[in-house]
Amino acid sequence: MRKTVIGLLAAAGLIAGPAHAAPGDWVNQIVPIPAPVEPAQIALDGQPDPGEAWFQTDLAQRRLWNVAHAQLIPVADTLRGSEARPAVIVIPGGGFQFLSMDNEGYLVARQLVATGLRVFILKYRTTPIAGGTSGLKAALAALFQRGEGQDAVRAQVPLAVADTQAALRLVRSQAGQWHVDPAHVGVLGFSAGAMTVLGLLQADAAEARPDFAAMIYGPTQADTVPAHRPPLFAAIAADDRFFGGQDFSLISNWRKAGGPIEFHLFSAGGHGFATQPTGTTSDLWLAEYVAWLRAQGLTAGR
């Protein structure tokens, strides 16, 4: 499956700017910003990450790059109360070049906290980029416009999977302290984060696999499916510029193998619609996901 995931990365021609925006447009609008004051973070390898940097575009969506040491962020208020509850680890996208921390991180996570879940955001390792903001712009322009640098990006896929495995182990190991139900720990990945979820499902150790999973505008094509097939939620827009042309064989093969799955193909919405309204039915994805969680007995009042 690792080769399949990396092959999908190459076939997609890469990943994730704002919905509907041409890659060159938003790359040219990158502006560096100071690191925000974030909630308490847990270093998954025991080391802080002084080299990470932040930027935003005209959409005022903050993004993070040069993450060298993975961190897990318990979302504000998620650890209140003493009842053991299911947990979700949110995995932002960004082509393994950066992390879309608002659109596919904080803004989603805060809505999920309201459902009674324990929610965490994963800052996984991204492709090292030198040269400050100019180097970032050059790297992204080369990647999106000329397809250069894909080998370096592919090298990040197993690192992102390993970081997610470490996050799952940590959440389960701290289940008592964090009031998490260790038998119900799931993942929610966007774009590159969804590709990470697909790779994660091949983990050998049971404690490093999710109990339920979601892939938002990620791959829908795979010749084989993992032996471990937890309940899966998948959603994508038909006009997704990276994965919209795939043949949905992942979905059909998952069903044929007896894996529980809910799949939403929205007629429009582009790529990156997480919390950015597009005026299409893809705006409903989060409500559908929460309804699916409720049907699985994973939200408050379960």
SSE map:
Elements: H1 2-12, H2 23-27, E1 31-33, E2 42-43, E3 53-56, E4 62-65, E5 71-74, E6 85-91, E7 98-100, H3 102-113, E8 118-123, H4 132-146, H5 150-154, H6 156-173, H7 175-178, E9 180-190, H8 192-200, E10 212-216, E11 232-237, H9 249-256, E12 261-266, H10 285-295
Parallel strand pairs: 6-8, 6-9, 9-10, 10-11, 11-12
Antiparallel strand pairs: 1-3, 2-5, 3-4, 4-7, 5-8
Commentary on this structure:
This protein has 302 residues and is of the alpha/beta class. It has a single domain (2-295), classed as Alpha/Beta hydrolase fold, catalytic domain (Rossmann fold). Helix content is 32%, strand content 20%. It contains 10 helices and 12 strands. It has helices at residues 2-12, 23-27, 102-113, 132-146, 150-154, 156-173, 175-178, 192-200, 249-256, 285-295; strands at residues 31-33, 42-43, 53-56, 62-65, 71-74, 85-91, 98-100, 118-123, 180-190, 212-216, 232-237, 261-266. Strands 2-5-8-6-9-10-11-12 form an 8-stranded mixed beta sheet, sandwiched between helices. α1 (2-12) packs antiparallel against α8.
